[in-house]
Design goal:
Shape: flat
Order of helices and strands: HEEE
Number of helices: 1
Strand content: 25-35%
Distance between the termini: 42 Å
Number of strands: 3
Strand order of the largest sheet: 1-2-3
Structural class: alpha+beta
Helix content: 10-25%
Radius of gyration: 17 Å
Amino acid sequence: MNSQDKKESAAAVKILHYGDLKWTPIIKGCDIAVVEGNPDAEGQPFVIRFRCADGAKVPATLAPHG
């Protein structure tokens, strides 16, 4: 790996602290935060985090595309 490859690899790393996440309630007792990307953009990668209170019930779902 040459120095240019190392610079490009290092530029791709993004550190996001827990306190920097923007949490949005989705169901009773659970929140979601988008870490990277846009979950609404079709065919594009994204990363999300969920946090749920102890005992929260998450119903089974199917994605709209099946």
